[in-house]
Specification:
This protein has helices at about 10-15, 25-30, 35-50, 60-70, 80-100, 100-110, 110-145. By secondary structure, the protein is mostly helical.
């Protein structure tokens, strides 16, 4: 048997059936008047709380909260695809124009098929990146609109 009293947390867990007591716990609870009185007090307290009726509002809380939320703005179906494509196309043209001498020297020694494959690969890569960027932008806008 232990000489020190059980903690309030242990007694509360025991009363709420959240603690499986060992033999020393049971023996102490049987022999210690202080701990037994605390157990009875918590038992009474918890049973009284369970018997209390749940509070009922005379108004609907959700209607009050929804009424205070800002109204969502009307959705504009603006497409960001064409501005993005034109910006990307302009950037590609600017890069080609700036490096035209270097590019001419590189492509002068390549065959027509190799040049076509390089250009096709670059255009396809650019198209996929633009569409991916557009989808990400739309997801972010949808997420912001849902808040």
């Amino acid at each position: 048997m232990t000489d020190k009293h059980l903690s309030e947390k242990q007694i509360q867990q025991y009363v709420l059936n959240e603690l499986v007591p060992d033999e020393s716990f049971k023996k102490h609870l049987q022999t210690c008047a202080h701990c037994r009185a605390m157990e009875e007090a918590y038992t009474t307290l918890f049973s009284t709380i369970k018997q209390e009726p749940k509070p009922v509002f005379d108004f609907e809380v959700s209607n009050l909260v929804v009424a205070q939320l800002p109204k969502p703005a009307a959705k504009k179906e603006t497409s960001f695809l064409w501005p993005l494509v034109s910006i990307a196309f302009g950037m590609v043209l600017a890069i080609i124009w700036g490096f035209k001498k270097v590019l001419l020297n590189v492509f002068a020694n390549l065959s027509t098929i190799a040049i076509g494959l390089v250009i096709l690969s670059a255009v396809l890569l650019l198209i996929f990146q633009v569409f991916d960027l557009y989808k990400q932008n739309q997801q972010q806008l949808n997420l912001l609109n849902s808040l």
